[in-house]
Amino acid sequence: MTDQKPKGYAVQLYFDQKMEDDFFIFRESLYKLGINPVLGKLDDRPHVSLGVFGDVDIDRVVEITSAFARLCTQLPAQLDAFGAFPTSSNVLYLLPVPSQPLLKLHTQYHEILQKEKILSSHYYLPGQWVPHCTLEFELSDEQFNLAFQLCKKHFSPIHGTFASIGVIAFRPIIYLTEFSLPKQDIK
Predict the structure, then answer these.
(1) Which of 15, 77, 97, 169 could covalently link to 174 via disulfide, CB atoms 3.0 to 4.6 Å apart?
(2) How far apart are CA 187 and CA 116, in angstroms?
(3) Distance (Å, rounded) from C-alpha 128 to C-alpha 135?
(4) Range of the structural domain that residue 22 is part of
(5) For position 148, which CATH number holds?
(6) Do 106 and 114 meet the contact criterion of CB atoms below 8 Å apart?
(7) Whole-prediction pTM
(8) Tens of pLDDT along the chain (187 residues)?
(9) Residue 135, Cα to own-chain centre: how many angstroms?
């Protein structure tokens, strides 16, 4: 890790390997059709962020996340739509179906954070969270419009599971730790 202080930290849900591969195949297809990679150059894994933090005791966040991951199980994940946030950052994302198990997992994580007096960005709080998997961002308006049209023409849903939870520092992205989620017992 560099001596430079990270701009922030995030706790992220990661997909199973096949789903991650399918995401990369789709994103690479956009690059081949003329989209200039921005996020694709940052070594970013496809994910859905549960929380994003500024100045925080990251060791405590890792400890909490480790304990939380042991209480969870893998969840079905479905990226069934695409969309954009109305900001100047031109964020294009794939939208996971906000299933009850996903929303419950998110809420339970934030209840623990609240008890520990750890504050996440308000965009990630229950009731305000828009679960999303960023496809690209910081595109020029022209590139953003092209990417949106290409998604409209070429996107197909991507299905799999949420298989692990990780903690990162960002910009640059530094993967700090990752915890596998146990598979659900099917009875």
Answers:
(1) 169
(2) 35
(3) 20
(4) 8-180
(5) 3.90.1140.10
(6) no
(7) 0.94
(8) 456 789 999 999 999 999 999 999 999 999 999 999 999 999 899 999 999 999 999 999 999 999 999 999 999 999 999 999 989 999 999 999 999 999 999 999 999 999 999 999 999 999 999 999 999 999 999 999 999 999 999 999 999 999 999 999 998 999 999 999 999 875 5
(9) 10
